[in-house]
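Notebook, bench 3.
Goal today: get a predicted structure for Response regulator from Streptomyces lomondensis so we can plan the truncation constructs. The sequence was checked against the plasmid map this morning, with no discrepancies at the termini. Length recorded as 226 residues. Pasting the sequence as submitted so the record is complete.
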Amino acid sequence: MVQKAKILLVDDRPENLLALEAILSALDQTLVRASSGEEALKALLTDDFAVILLDVQMPGMDGFETAAHIKRRERTRDIPIIFLTAINHGPHHTFRGYAAGAVDYISKPFDPWVLRAKVSVFVELYMKNCQLREQASLLRLQLEGNGKDAGGEAKEPAGLLAELSARLAAVEEQAEALTKQLNDESTDAAAVATAAHLERKLTGLRRALDALEPGTGSTSSVSSQN
C-alpha cells in the first residue's frame, strides 16, 4: 500500500482552508490544517510534509515569521513552501517572500488548476525521495545482514542483487520521466533543482550497487566509500 504524502495548509480563515481542501482533494493525499503559524510549527514537530501552503497575512505570527522558523529547523528546512497572499505590495513584498525561503509566491484569487499542478509536482518529488530512501535502507540492511532474508536464511547473492537492481531501476525510470516533464514544462526552478538532486542520489546508489557485481569490487570496499 502506497503511503500518502502530507500537505500542510496554513491559514487563519476557515473558509480559506476549506477552499484549499476542495482544490487539492483531487490529489488524493493527506491534507493537514493549521490555523496559525504556531499551530503549523507544532504539526511540523511530529509529521513529515511534502509541501506547505502558507498564508502571508495572519494575526500574531505571520507567514514570513513562520517560514523563518521552519527554515531554521534542520528537520524542516528543506520542505518546499508556497506563499499565498490576498494582497500584492509589489516586487519588494514578493522578494521578501522568496527571501524567507518560499519556492513560489501566489496572489489570491489564484487559478485552482495552477495551484493544484504546482503542489502535485512537489508531492511527486517527495514520493520519489521516499522511494529512494527505502531502496537505500534496504541495500544497507542487506549488506549489514550479509544478505539474509526475513527468516534468517542466506539469500543467493545474484538473486539479492537482481532484486535490489530491479527496485532501483523502477525508481530511476520514474525520476527520469519526472525530470523530463519538469524541463519540458519549464516549471519552477526549485522543483527542477530538487529533481536533479534526486537523480544525483540515484546515480550514487546505482554505482554502489554496481560495485557489488562479481568482479567489480567487494562489499567492504563499497561500505568504506559511503
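Confidence is low (pLDDT under 50) at residues 216-226. The first strand starts at residue 6 and ends at 10.
Flagging this for group meeting.
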